[in-house]
Design goal:
The protein has a seven-stranded mixed sheet with strand order 2-3-4-1-5-6-7, sandwiched between helices. Strands 8-9-10 form a three-stranded mixed sheet. The mean pLDDT is 86. The relative contact order is 0.13. A hairpin with a 5-residue loop joins strand 8 and strand 9. Helices cover 36% and strands 24% of the residues. The protein has helices spanning 18-26, 69-84, 101-110, 132-142, 159-169, 186-202, 238-245, 250-267, 287-292, and strands at 4-11, 30-33, 44-50, 53-58, 87-93, 117-122, 147-150, 212-220, 226-235, 270-279. It starts with a strand and ends in a 6-residue tail after the last helix. It has nine helices and ten strands. Bound molecules: guanosine-5'-diphosphate and magnesium ion (MG). Residues 12, 14-20, 122-123, 125-126, 152-154 line the site of guanosine-5'-diphosphate.
């Protein structure tokens, strides 16, 4: 089966069970789960890796009915962000008979989004089975969902179906994170992998396998929606360094600009990216080097 990967986010009113679902999804298979404040708009909350997919769950700004201009602006940012992910999980509660005002407002926003939206009806453990059908038809009238899946996050019921359904809409893609990784800086790791991916696409065959990328700086510029990122690209030979830099630095420039656009999309901020190419013979055999590159095994 082809390997798929992509970005997923959960939206929904307060108290519908978003955090609970996140924790269950994470389960034992999580590589990352962070609850600390992040500089980027799209902070990585968890990475779920299975044999045939990797899902990166990111935080997006909440959607609440705006009370003023600023609120409107925030909702627009939220909708923009939802357009950048690969799947949106819209979580509601089975205990409501009808979609409430808060839910309907979210639906109105989700209609503007071109990303597939899954309706997840949570807390089915609290209601009788026959209670669920009317909710499904009420929501179906509001909007066309990619799929509608009843679950009980707290009992881990239906959660695997969610993963299987979401996998279907993900693009074929790389494993951004190693299977069993422990890091409190997932964004750094993701950025390194995105840069490496561009190198794989742009540079001739023999070079990329000897290439490692280390993000040495990841820093928000105070008061600006901008992150300064510096990364070292390690290779094993002088000749490889030449190829990576290219004539008059053109290859490195190309790697940098392609990577930057993608990093900006994923992190939801402007990025100033600087790259350096360094020779480190045999870095692949160095434990210390592997640790720097983020390969901390449990
Ligand atoms: P959030 O505000 O959307 O993040 O919601 P939380 O995850 O914090 O959950 C709000 C409350 O609903 C908590 O008391 C959870 O224990 C409860 N809850 C979450 N999922 C379920 C579920 O599937 N069944 C039941 N009965 N309670 C749930
Ligand atoms: Mg929560």
């Amino acid at each position: 089966m082809e390997f798929k990967s992509g970005f997923v986010t959960i939206v929904g009113r307060p108290n519908v069970g978003k955090s609970t679902l996140m924790n269950v999804l994470a389960g034992e298979k999580v590589s990352i789960i962070s609850d600390k404040p992040q500089t980027t708009r799209n902070a990585i909350k968890a990475v779920i890796t299975r044999q045939d997919f990797q899902m990166i769950f990111i935080d997006t700004p909440g959607i609440h009915k705006p009370k003023n201009k600023l609120g409107e602006f925030m909702v627009n940012i939220a909708v923009d962000t939802l357009n950048e992910v690969d799947a949106v999980l819209f979580l509601v509660e089975a205990t409501d008979t009808n979609p409430g005002a808060g839910d309907i407002y979210i639906v109105e926003q989700l209609k503007k989004v071109k990303t597939p939206v899954f309706l997840i009806i949570n807390k089915i453990d609290l209601v009788k089975k026959e209670h669920i059908l009317p909710i499904i038809s009420a929501y179906k009238e509001l909007m066309a969902f990619e799929a509608i899946i009843p679950i009980s996050a707290i009992n881990n019921e239906g959660v695997d179906i969610v993963l299987q359904e979401v996998r279907k809409v993900l693009p074929e893609g790389p494993k951004y994170f190693p299977d069993d990784m422990l890091t409190d800086q997932p964004e750094k790791m993701l950025v390194a992998e995105l840069i490496r991916e561009k190198i794989l696409h742009l540079v001739s065959d023999e070079v990329p396998h000897g290439v490692g990328v280390e993000v040495i700086q990841f820093k928000e510029r105070a008061g600006k929606n901008l992150i300064d990122i510096q990364a070292n690209i390690y290779c094993e030979k002088e000749s490889h360094k030449g190829i990576l830099i290219g004539k008059e630095g053109r290859m490195l420039k190309k790697i940098g600009s392609l990577a930057r656009v993608e990093i900006e999309n994923i992190l939801g901020t402007k990025v100033f990216l600087q790259l350096w190419v360094k020779i480190k013979p045999d870095w692949r055999n160095s434990e210390a080097m592997l640790r720097t590159l983020g390969y901390n095994r449990r």
